[in-house]
Amino acid sequence: MTTASTPPLPPARPSPTFPQTTPMASPPSPPDPAALLAHLAAVLSSPDWRFHPSLPHLPALLAPSLPRTLLVPLPLRLAAAVARAAAPSRHLLALSLPVLLRLHAVSPPPLRPLFDRPFRSMLTHLSRFTLTPLMLRLFVHMHRHSPPAPTGATYNTLIRSLCRRADLRRALRYLSLMVRSGWRPDAFTFNSMIVGYCRTKQVDLARDLFDKMPLRGFPQDVVSYAALIEGFCQVGKIDEAVELFREMEQPDMHAYVALVKGLCDAGRGEEGLQMLRKMKELGWRPSTRPYAAVVHFFCREQKVEKAEEMLEEMFDKDLMPSVVTCTAVVHAYCREGRMSDAIRVFEAMKLKGCEPNVWTYNVLVQGFCNEGKVYKAMALLEQMRVCGVDPDVVTYNLLIRGQCVDGHIESAFRLLHLMEGNGLVADQYIR
Questions:
Q1: Dist. CA 385–CA 235, nearest whole Å
Q2: What is the pLDDT of residues 253-292, one digit of tens each?
C-alpha cells in the first residue's frame, strides 16, 4: 500500500539516445543520490513505509558497491546504503544523517542494536569532513535512544573533533561523560586533549598532560610529540619546540612540518628551509604546508626571487599552492615596484590552475596605482568582471584614490556611483 503523499522513486537521469547503428551506447546515468535520499526520507515519514514498493531497490541504487547477497533485514541494508552513499561529500552527509536517524527510530527494537556499524561508519565520515555539529547530533541520538549506546571509540572520535575545533570546554564535558559511562581514556584521548590545549594556547597544561602519559601507562608517540611541537610553535616557544623535536627517536613528517612552519613564522626561515631539505633527503614528499611557510618567510624578508623559486618547485612537484601563497609572491614584487615580475607570476599562476581571487587583483591594483599607472589598474577592473571576480570596497577605494591623485575627479565619482550600483557602501576611507 502506497500513500498518496509518498513521491515516486526518482527516475534515472536521461542519457542521450543513439541510432541503432551505433556500436556502443553510453550506459544510463544512475539516479542522483540526493534525490534518492530525499525520496527515502519522504517514504519513512509515512506510517506504512514498510510496504512501499521502492524500498527493496533503494540499497542497490544508493550504494551499488554494497553486496547484494547481504542477508540482513531491509532496515539495516538501507542504513548501510545510506551511510555509504553519504561518504563523498558534506552535502550528502547533511542529507543522509536525518534519514539514518529516522531509520533507527522506526526500526523494530530487536534491530536497533545492530545499527552500531552504520552509526560508526557515519561518524567516521562526519569526522573526516570535521562536521562536528552533525557528529554531536548523532552522538546525542545514540545517547538518548540506545541501543546502540556510544562506545569508547565514539567518545574518542567526538572529543578529537571538538579539540581540533578548539572547543575545549565541550570536549572536557564529553570526557567527563565518557568516564562516568564507564569508558577509560586511552592514548588517543590523551593526544586529543593535548591538541585541544594547544589549540587554545594552553601549552603548559598540554605539556603537563604530555608528561603524565607514561604514568598512566601510555608512552608518548609521534602524535603526542607533533601536537605539542605545533602548540609550542603557535605561542612562539620555538626553542622548546626544537628541544622537544630533538627528544624524538624517529620524528615523523607531521613533526617536521610543524617545526618548519614554526621556524619560518618566528623569522628563522633558513633553519626551516634546512628542515624542509632534510625531509626530502629522507625520501618524503612534503605537502604544500612547509613549502608555503618558506615562501611566506622569503616574501617577508624581501627575498622574493627565492620565494618564487620555492613556488616554482611546488608547481614542478605537482603541489598546487594556495591562492594565498601565490598572491604573497605577487604582493612582494608589487611592494618592490617590480610590476612586470608581478604580472608574470600572476599570469603563471592562472596558467597553472591557481585562480586569482579579489585579494590578488587588489595587490596588483595597488601596485599600479603606487606607480602612477592608474590606467593599468582600471584595466584590471574590467578583467575582474570578465573572470567572474567581484571587486570589493578595497578595490574601489584604491581606484578612486588613484583617480583623485591623478586629478581625475569625475572618473573618481563615476567609480563611486558604479560601486554603489553594485551594492557596496562607501566607507570612511572614501568619504
A1: 41
A2: 999 999 999 999 999 999 999 999 999 999 999 999 999 9
